Amino acid sequence: MIERLKGKVLEKGADWAVIQVAGMGFFLKITASALEKITPGQEAEVFTHLIIKDEEPILMGFSSKEEREVFKKLLSVSGIGPKTAMAILSTIGLESFLEAVERGNVSALSRVPGIGKKGASRIIVEMKNFIPSMAGESEAEIISALTNLGFKRSEVESVVREISGKGLPVEEAIKEALRRLS
């Protein structure tokens, strides 16, 4: 419904922000990584997801599309609601979360308030199938972007294979690949 907001940051708190867009102030519950990137009085862009809970809409804010997609997938895990999904992404961060799922690291997920060993195990099992598809999409997106810039596909694929294990967001991976290709 609301894909993202781009506007002036009016206020921010421990886990929320108010962003003004076209004269309207939008209140968002926001992840720690998104909160780090914004400063009151400055322009910001935040990816969003709308939750309707108890007849009250809550707009959630994320620093990237990938973070938002993981949040949405977390909501499909049995026993995980918006508050817990946000706590996961804010407490251990997107990359650490993806790595914990990939490696089956129950103790890393157990550090999140409200998640015990059983809950962490359930998250790992249910998210395990989701992680490879995200990596494949990200790699394809990186390869496409770099070949569109004129780099040879064989060179691009080689570099992408080298950096794919680092768990970088797509934008950072493209920058790293450009450094290596130059």
Q: What's the helix-strand series? A: EEEHEEHHHHHHHH
Low-confidence segments: none
Cα end-to-end separation: 40 Å
Shape, principal axes of CA atoms:
globular
Structure explained in plain terms:
By secondary structure, this protein is of the alpha+beta class. β2 and β3 (24-30) form a beta hairpin. It starts with a strand and ends with a helix. The chain has 3 domains: 4-62, Beta Barrel (OB fold (Dihydrolipoamide Acetyltransferase, E2P)), CATH 2.40.50.140; 66-128, DNA polymerase, domain 1; 132-181, Helicase, Ruva Protein, domain 3. α2 (65-75) packs across α3 and α8 packs across α9. The chain contains 9 helices and 5 strands; from the N terminus they run βββαββαααααααα. The longest helix has 19 residues, at 130-148. Strands 1-2-3-5-4 form a 5-stranded mixed beta barrel.
Quick summary of this structure?
By secondary structure, this protein is of the alpha+beta class. It has nine helices and five strands, in the order βββαββαααααααα.
Secondary structure elements and pairings:
Blueprint: E1 4-12, E2 16-21, E3 24-30, H1 32-36, E4 43-53, E5 56-62, H2 65-75, H3 82-91, H4 94-103, H5 106-110, H6 117-128, H7 130-148, H8 153-163, H9 170-181
Parallel strand pairs: 3-5
Antiparallel strand pairs: 1-2, 1-4, 2-3, 4-5
Helix pairs in contact: 2-3, 7-8, 7-9, 8-9
